[in-house]
Amino acid sequence: MRVEIKRRRHILDLDDFSREEMEFIFERADSMKEVLSREIKKVPTLRGKRIATLFYEPSTRTRVSFEIAAKTLSADVINIQASSSSVEKGETLIDTLKTLKSLGIDLVVLRHPSPGAPYLASRFFEGSIINAGDGTHAHPTQALLDIYTVREKLKSFDGIKLLIVGDIAHSRVARSNIIGFHKMGARITLCSPPTLMPRYIKKAYPWVDVDFDLDRAIKDADVIMALRIQKERQGDNLIPSLREYIRLYQINRERLKRAKDGVLILHPGPVNEGIELSMDVVNGSLIREQVENGVAIRMALLYTILGGK
Ligand code: CP
């Protein structure tokens, strides 16, 4: 039986997504992949709609995949990098959004260094907001593409063990995936150096297991997600040295022997090669599939918000 999904105006995080709604998005992404496999990758679904990407932080994957997704659906796309906009002259986020609405923008894809900025934006922008990453808080479209990539390989999430390893403290990707994979039925273990694990983690997400010992945590994992060490967000020296981090927390072939056979390796990118993952593990990972699936997931989301049911 197909569950009725309410039409949503914004995508700010996965907190208010049900498993059924995520499944609905994934089925829609399956159809979008079919469009992307055609010789002419273009459908008229969003003709006449205007989408702006408004990025206050650097990005390659998220920004480009949203642009490709929107163009494949025939929307008009305007890319705004805050560093080369009137933000540099002191314009506020709210004034920028009001300006974009006056210019006929229907949907803004927003990346911002401040946690909660997309929530603020959704209160003042009369169109739709998609959170493309807000500081250390959330990255819902990344989590959806991660879950979708695993769904293609495992089919069922019930009882699988997901291990998230690395800089949990600064990771919006971790936070959205902790919520999303849990809703899909996965068990989740978090592993990091103690200095990169938020103290509130068990209070905020009581269903996760926390282990600081990677050789123990990796045992029987079905899926491993390694996170980037976010040097740009680390004010203090939270790890003694990269060499020490690699010794204790790198995912490499030797460590993978303790995981399940055929364990799936994900990384949201960009990767610090040879730090979070050894090079041979990068080569055997699903990183390319994650990037490819990002376009289909973002097409599904844009269509769901702007195109009808
Ligand atoms: N995963 C991710 O958000 O990558 P970008 O910063 O390149 O968009």
Structural description of this entry:
39% of the residues lie in helices and 15% in strands. The strands form two sheets. Strands 7-6-5-8-9 form a five-stranded parallel β-sheet. A four-stranded parallel β-sheet has the order 2-1-3-4, with helices on both faces. The protein is globular. The chain has helices at 19-36, 61-72, 93-102, 117-124, 140-154, 172-184, 201-204, 214-217, 242-249, 253-256, 279-283, 287-306, and strands at 50-55, 76-81, 107-112, 128-134, 161-165, 187-191, 209-211, 223-226, 264-266. By secondary structure, it is of the alpha/beta class. Helix 5 (140-154) crosses helix 6 (172-184). The model has no long low-confidence stretch (mean pLDDT 94). The structure holds phosphoric acid mono(formamide)ester. Phosphoric acid mono(formamide)ester (CP) binds at residues 59-62, 133, 142, 268-270.
Features:
alpha/beta; four-stranded parallel β-sheet; binds phosphoric acid mono(formamide)ester
- How many alpha or pi helices? 12
- Shape descriptor: globular
**Strand arrangement across the biggest beta sheet:** 7-6-5-8-9
Task: Give every kind of bound small molecule, once each.
Answer: phosphoric acid mono(formamide)ester
Structural class: alpha/beta
Beginning-to-end CA distance, first to last residue: 17 Å
Q: How would you state the average pLDDT, rounded?
A: 94
Number of strands: 9
Task: Please bin the fraction of helical residues.
Answer: 25-40%
Strand content: 5-15%
Task: Output the helix-strand order.
Answer: HEHEHEHEHEHEHEHEHHEHH
Parts with pLDDT < 50 across at least 5 consecutive residues: none
Taking Cα atoms only, what radius of gyration do you get, to the nearest Å? 19 Å
Oligomer: single chain
- Major sheet size, sense and barrel closure: 5 strands, parallel
